[in-house]
Amino acid sequence: MTSEPARVPVDATTTNAWGSLTELSKNLDPDLRGWFAADPERAARLSHQAGDLHVDLSKNLVTDDVLAALLALAEEVGLAEHRDAMFAGRHINVTEDRAVLHTALRRPSDEPFTVDGQDVTADVADELAKVYAFAEQVRSGEWTGVTGEAVRTIVNIGIGGSDLGPVMAYEALEPYVQDGLEVRFVSNIDPTDVAQKTADLDPTTTLFIVASKTFGTLETLTNARLARDWLWRSLVAAGAIEDSEDGRADAVAKHFVAVSTALDKVEAFGIDPANAFGFWDWVGGRYSVDSAIGTSLAVAIGPDAFADFLAGFHAMDEHFRTTPFEQNVPALMGLLNVWYVNFRDAHTHAVLPYAQQLHRFPAYLQQLTMESNGKSVRWDGTPVTSETGEVFWGEPGTNGQHAFYQLIHQGTRLIPADFIAVANPAYPLADAVGDGGAVAAGADVHGLFLANFFAQTKALAFGKTADEVRAEGVAEDLVSAKVFSGNRPTTSILAPALTPSVLGQLVALYEHITFVQGVVWGIDSFDQWGVELGKKLALEIAPAVAGDEAALAAQDPSTAALIAKYRELRA
Ligand code: F6P
Question: Pathway it belongs to (predicted)?
Answer without folding.
Answer: Carbohydrate degradation; glycolysis; D-glyceraldehyde 3-phosphate and glycerone phosphate from D-glucose: step 2/4; Carbohydrate biosynthesis; gluconeogenesis
